[in-house]
Amino acid sequence: MNTTPEHSPLGKATAYTEQYDASLLFPIARNLAREQIGIGAQLPFFGTDIWNAYELSWLNSRGKPQIAIATVYVPADSANIVESKSFKLYLGSFAQTVFDSADAVRDTIRRDVSAACGATVSVHFASPFEFGKLQLEEFDGLSLDRLDLDTDVYHPDPSLLKSALTEAPVEETLISDLLKSNCPVTGQPDWGSVQIHYVGPQIDHAGLLRYLISYRNHTGFHEQCVERIFIDIMRECQPLKLAVYARYTRRGGLDINPFRTNFNQPMPDNLRTARQ
């Protein structure tokens, strides 16, 4: 199967089905984009992609519609990602399909997405009775957006990144809500917030903000953008430890939230930001 973006349903006229169809999932190989930024078989990070799906429904054995919010955790070392429109179409195919239980739906999603990604994913459901407990939370950290600066660079430019390589290392967490990139095929905007935690030479805050803003006209999937940010910071700023976590606003009832780190720490929480 060809797993390049131009062969996906992305950006093409689509026939929607409401009968379960696992073949709608379209995998895209991670290694193609990784090779472009110098990532080989030995990954310089680990982490996960957290997908939240808000438009999931199916029929119970009596024909009554059921709903849930699904969260899918895809390991960063999986061979593939799943193209997001194909994932939306796949979830839409549950709408008029009868399942005996929510567990059966969850197990089906786990099986199908694991097969598409080439790795075991985990799937969690929030039932309607739990919706009222879901919370919003903004990123913790020092906001780079407070800086008043000029910029005219809107394609990723690692040369904007600077750090105090000769000075003692620091530890800090920096955040920005100004991340924007574009879908590689449709050109639709992807809006996000990013949190960068590091230990190492102090990173120049203005340069880092200009660098994040420079993604504004860049085309790349969410996961690929976060990995490029991680690699560029590692190369240019030489931190000892680095974690990059981005939360993107939803499109098509889905939000995608990649996390990459090179040191052991707890999995980030999955609390939505206000824009999500």
TrEMBL record:
Name of the gene this protein is made from: queF
EC numbers, comma separated: 1.7.1.13
Keywords associated with the record: Cytoplasm, NADP, Oxidoreductase, Queuosine biosynthesis
Residues annotated as domain NADPH-dependent 7-cyano-7-deazaguanine reductase N-terminal: 16-124
Matching InterPro entries: GTP-CH-I_C/QueF, NADPH_dep_7-cyano-7-deazaG_red, QueF, QueF_N, QueF_type2
Subunit structure: Homodimer.
Function per UniProt: Catalyzes the NADPH-dependent reduction of 7-cyano-7-deazaguanine (preQ0) to 7-aminomethyl-7-deazaguanine (preQ1).
Family: Belongs to the GTP cyclohydrolase I family. QueF type 2 subfamily.
Catalytic activity: 7-aminomethyl-7-carbaguanine + 2 NADP(+) = 7-cyano-7-carbaguanine + 2 NADPH + 3 H(+)
Active site residues per record: C183, D190
Residues engaged in binding substrate: V82, E83, S84, H222, E223
Biological-process GO terms, alphabetical: tRNA queuosine(34) biosynthetic process
Gene Ontology CC entries for this record: cytoplasm
Organism annotation: Paraburkholderia megapolitana
Protein name as it appears in the record: NADPH-dependent 7-cyano-7-deazaguanine reductase
Gene3D superfamilies: 3.30.1130.10
HAMAP family in the cross-refs: QueF_type2
Binding site for NADPH: S84, K85, R251, G252
Subcellular location, record wording: Cytoplasm
Molecular-function annotations in GO: preQ1 synthase activity
Recorded metabolic or biological pathway in which this protein acts: tRNA modification; tRNA-queuosine biosynthesis
Major location category of this protein: cytoplasm
